[in-house]
Amino acid sequence: MLNISGINIVYVTTTILLLSTFGIFATGINTESFDPFLILTGRLGLILFVLSFGASKFHAIFRAGWSRQLLINRRYLGIASALTMFVHFVWIYAQALIMPEWWAEISLYDKISGNVTLILLCMMGMTSNDVSVKYLGLKNWKRLHVIGSYVALWSFAMEYIFI
Questions:
Q1: N or C: which end of the chain has fewer CB within 10 A?
Q2: Is residue 41 over pLDDT 70?
Q3: DSSP state, 29?
Q4: Is the pTM of this model over 0.85?
């Protein structure tokens, strides 16, 4: 049976992102090829983020084997979420370079909140290791991850719930 836990979560996510990226090139570079990929990466990033962010709450509520696995794999789910969202933003900027009229239609609020969220998610993804916890100190590391998580939660909520 396939073991999708630990670092394998990141490997599977990377494989999905690479394979779906080929879809953009196979269909040609245009809005019709970007849109499904942006939807895929946005929703995959959301799912991975919710699983990572909510792992302790899920386990507190359900006390099941699957919720324990979420706790055990929380770091890798978070890294996979950060990686997915980084690729999502790379393709947004690629589309903006290719189709500036599309970029001009995006609100300033969405551009600013997207960039702030990207920076925080990248910082959280890069510091999701024991060396960073030691270097930053547990207090600063937690502060970064709590603030970054709530900013990301806000951005996802604004994108998928309120707008």
A1: N
A2: yes
A3: S
A4: yes
